[in-house]
Amino acid sequence: MDSSLLDCEQHIEDAMAEHATAQCPPLLAQALNYAVFPGGARVRPQLCKAVALANNSSDVGLASAAATAVELLHCASLVHDDLPCFDDATQRRGKPSVHAKFGERIAVLTGDALIVAAFQTLAAHAVHAVRIERVPLVTTIVARGVGAPHGICAGQAWECEQRVDLARYHRAKTGALFVAATCAGAASAGVDPGPWVNLGASIGEAYQIADDIKDAVSDPETLGKPVGIDVKLDRPSAVRELGLEGAVSRLKDCLESGLDSMPSCAGQNMLYKLVRAQSSRFIPEKLGQVAA
Amino acid sequence: MDSSLLDCEQHIEDAMAEHATAQCPPLLAQALNYAVFPGGARVRPQLCKAVALANNSSDVGLASAAATAVELLHCASLVHDDLPCFDDATQRRGKPSVHAKFGERIAVLTGDALIVAAFQTLAAHAVHAVRIERVPLVTTIVARGVGAPHGICAGQAWECEQRVDLARYHRAKTGALFVAATCAGAASAGVDPGPWVNLGASIGEAYQIADDIKDAVSDPETLGKPVGIDVKLDRPSAVRELGLEGAVSRLKDCLESGLDSMPSCAGQNMLYKLVRAQSSRFIPEKLGQVAA
């Protein structure tokens, strides 16, 4: 398959152009674009669109809207996660974090406006959707990935509790949006999303473990943000729980179990390759030997 | 009309029960309920539902979902507005604000999760909507009322700019959600929302002026939150711009112009009474003579 079909950048740009307009308060408009562009690897929206295409979606526009929504929600979560009251991170993607550059107030509002923009993008597509009857389920899936009780907000909130189950915390904080990506992709193709939960959950778990590993062993220049945050904030982490080798080993197990669980579909090979390619970036190069 | 038809409390409770569950991190679950119950006057959701009923809506469930979404978004905006980086308000509705009681992190997450819950409520209704084709427009209207460039987020963001046009600031910060309430009510009844913009905008403007008046002349016990914030934070305010009598006079003009603009519909008299009853609470009693 032509990999450009998975590219979501134009859809994300089109969506943002509706919000960061000349009528928008200038600082908020700047911060909205700053939080979304240039993006990271856009792993989640590509995964969402790939699952839809692998299932021969008859409403690719819906898959693109869902993919865009998932990415905007991811960006929103990063902006709020970096706030002084959470990670107090002054760097993100190799540049000052949104609150470091625009102040805390604009950072809170940027996250809020991106959450709204995500759902507005889905609603805007629905106005002329080929398959409008699929939109409610797709929207519900995306919302579950970010809200309470099981989405990103819940994941962050587990950081505020005295007792935390590590798996549950990771599932909510990172897994839920990957689950939303695979399941929204399936639902936008009119396919039962249930069997796609495990693939998303497994990639999400692997990704979170990779994040813990990077926090433990990377340098700030490579990572583009501060390192050592988990220990500094006494936060649960796979590396702190399992050690470095244990964490790398669990990461690999996660990915394999996710790929094994993938439902049979027309584009199974394409999806298999995409997930492998995406996850090859999960582990820092200098750990290649440990991971091999 | 039976005024209990306008009651949205059960719908709001049902919606919140989906999020503040036993699986939710306990502090977040408590804070979500704390932010929404007991509510204020529920002016916006009642207005939304009243406009739908006045237009003989054939999908009252959609109007109730829209009304609930509008109220949850209002609650979210209060939680974030009270944060230390904005108003730094420790009291709200006569009790400690969410961040004062649960901490800043839970307050940020509560606002985020309420925004998500608002759109999830609309999507959940859409799954079995009588008129699914109306949901995208209703959702878009609600989203416009809170996001960028013209909704609440934009309104708050104008507070961060050096130069602010007072009317534009009020329109976004307060008017936009009232416009969303009237227009979403109309759209959920299948009626063109355009002619309903002015009613919402006028009530919103009146409400914001009333807020400025209360901030200038109330005592904290009556208001249930700190007073004198506008002067303290050097914020634009109708009282600072027009003086007390000028502000009261503009408030009354706003309401009259809004009521004059109301499109003709089956329930026009009921709506007229509702808006009059709601707005009678706008002006503090001790200003009755000034306002008469």
List keywords for this structure.
Polyprenyl_synt_CS (chains A, B); 1% strand; homodimer; isoprene biosynthesis (chains A, B); mainly alpha; 292 residues; two-stranded antiparallel sheet; 66% helix; globular; Farnesyl Diphosphate Synthase
In words, what does this structure look like?
2 copies of one chain form a homodimer. The first copy, chain A, is mainly alpha-helical and 292 residues long. The first copy, chain A, has one domain: Farnesyl Diphosphate Synthase, CATH 1.10.600. In chain A, 66% of the residues lie in helices and 1% in strands. Chain A contains 15 helices and 2 strands. Chain A has helices at 9-17, 26-36, 43-54, 60-81, 98-102, 104-127, 135-146, 152-158, 166-188, 197-217, 220-223, 229-232, 238-260, 268-279, 288-291, and strands at residues 91-92, 95-96. A two-stranded antiparallel ribbon of chain A has the order 1-2. The longest helix of chain A has 24 residues, at 104-127. The first copy, chain A, is globular, with a radius of gyration of 18 Å. The two termini of chain A are 29 Å apart. The model of chain A has no long low-confidence stretch (mean pLDDT 92). At the A-B interface, helix 2, helix 6, helix 7 and helix 8 of A face helix 2, helix 6, helix 7 and helix 8 of B.
